[in-house]
Amino acid sequence: MTQDQQQSDAPRGIFITFEGGEGAGKTTHIRFLSEALKARGREVVRLREPGGTDIGERLRGVLLDPRNTALSDEAELLLYEAARAQIVAEVVKPALERGAVVLCDRFTDSTVAYQGYGRGLSRAFIDEANAFACQGVAPDRTILLVAGGDARTGLARATHRGADRLERAGEEFHAQVNDAFLEIARACPERVRVVESDRRKSRTAAAVFAELSDLFPWMEGLAEADPAFFGRLDAKRSKVRA
Predict the structure, then answer these.
(1) 23 labeled part of a ligand binding site
(2) 221 marked as binding residue
(3) Residue 165 has what pLDDT?
(4) Which of 15, 24, 118, 134 sits at 20 to 30 Å (Cα–Cα) from 47?
């Protein structure tokens, strides 16, 4: 059997994206989900946008560098789409074709929220640019993490070590972004699942797994069957504080 035949016989992977405003806790829950899936024998590819490739990481540096105050909104959008086109072609599509689970920190919904609602750029153009960059790839499920408090609270959580160019866009901008994510979730309830992230990490993680249980049946009822599985997240936090 040829390599091409083996790839065609492999089941398609699963593409899960995580979205949310600043300080929503995406990194923690992507890492925890990744570890759980790997323990079950799945290949997991963890990515972030913009980034995930050598070219994408260089574009990320341009986009988030606070010194690049002259970067226009239009150029910003196109740089995000360039990074996305690269990560889809170089990493996401091949990973899905070989049956991997791809977990991505931000994807097209962020572009709609930040550049569409936040920057006020054309939604129709953004939809076309997203479709062009994605080459037919779309998330099977999106977890929208919603933190408590207003935009100022989220920004404070995200910027305690310094703010990047997007984080410096101001509270009004980020409030519009947060509202946009909720509007996207209302428009796409089958794909986008809202999970509150302003509570104990164990409860948030359990809620994330519950929203993925149709894709991974072993997650069904896991919080009740094995409370310690999620409780270790809170234990790690307690050790750090101690």
Answers:
(1) yes
(2) no
(3) 86
(4) 118
